[in-house]
Amino acid sequence: MTTARGLHVLWRAMAAAAVVLVALLGVSGPALAHDVLEGTAPADGSSVSTVPAKVTIILSNTPASIGSQINVVDESGTNWSAGAVTVLDNVASQQLKPGAPAGKYAVQWRLVSSDGHPIEGQFTFTALAPSAGTGAVENSSGPSAVAGPVQAVQEPSPAAAEKAPDSSAVPWSVFGLVGVLIVVVIAMVVVAKRRLGAAD
């Protein structure tokens, strides 16, 4: 009877450890998921009547404004982005300088996901007429060549709007939770074995 009781105690310890494991997986699961692209304005591959005053990117969650960058580049390689990226809820916007010419534009974006990891992509649109403005822009305040960490990337497919995360993208908090779980399981097993030995 004492042996059976000890085995019951050991079983209860293992069951408690399993419950803790399920709870930790439920907490860490959402943390591993990056935000995904839900839409852009202008739409990818679309034609618009004039160059818009701004472009917008819609994600599944609110991105961070710090560290985010959006370049709006014309066919000559000139970047018409003006100022920093602004974020309102899950929408990131980039203003354009006035006087942008008609033609095809590539929007190269790199945003900081709500989980703290960068995601990037590219979409294109064609403007049939230049943007409202004075036309020619002075060199001192005009557009500059593309520079910075944003580089051209392949267009995201509708099914995947972000680059596949590698193993380095796993948050350190997950490893910490796993470590805590291991310690808890070991402690439970040791206590259960001691009780089993005492019962014998």
Automatic annotation (TrEMBL):
Residues passing through the membrane, by range: 172-192
Keyword Membrane: yes
Transferase keyword on record: no
Entry's localization field: Cell envelope
UniProt GO cellular component terms: cell envelope; periplasmic space; plasma membrane
Region (Disordered): 134-165
Signal peptide segment: 1-33
Any single biological process term in GO: response to copper ion
UniProt KW keywords: Copper, Membrane, Metal-binding, Signal, Transmembrane, Transmembrane helix
Ranges of residues in domain CopC: 34-126
Domain of life: Bacteria
Molecular function per GO: copper ion binding
Predominant subcellular localization, coarse grouping: other
PANTHER family: INNER MEMBRANE PROTEIN YEBZ (PTHR34820)
Protein name: CopC domain-containing protein
